[in-house]
Design goal:
The protein has one domain. By secondary structure, the protein is mainly alpha-helical. The model has no long low-confidence stretch (mean pLDDT about 90).
Length: about 110
């Protein structure tokens, strides 16, 4: 079965439970995040095979950082222009931190984010 977010669902009860836990973690991390962005981040976290064993808090943070980087900055454009990923991350870090701060995130980005 395929869920609303487009990812395969093996067990709908487990999927709904995990998504709910991730949604709560997103709200704790970013209390002022708009609903659309919160939903997109939760969907990404639930659908990402790499995050399947992560805690809801870790999955929420990693998905939030990825969402902000790819959807709300020029990161992908910089890669298309030929910048390497580390350089592109450097150039968008301040913009990412500004978005996260606007959402009420107190955690600061690190070089590993």
């Amino acid at each position: 079965m395929i869920g609303q977010s487009g990812c395969p669902i093996v067990n709908e009860v487990v999927w709904v439970s995990k998504r709910s836990e991730i949604e709560r973690a997103v709200q704790v991390l970013a209390p002022r995040i708009p609903d659309f962005e919160a939903g997109a981040i939760a969907d990404h976290a639930v659908c990402s095979p790499a995050l399947s064993t992560a805690s809801p808090q870790s999955a929420a943070w990693l998905s939030m950082v990825a969402f902000v980087r790819h959807a709300l900055t020029e990161y992908d454009s910089l890669l298309e222009e030929g910048y390497d990923p580390d350089s592109a991350r450097h150039f968008v870090a301040a913009d990412m931190q500004a978005v996260l701060s606007d959402w009420g995130v107190e955690r600061l980005l690190t070089s590993s984010d």
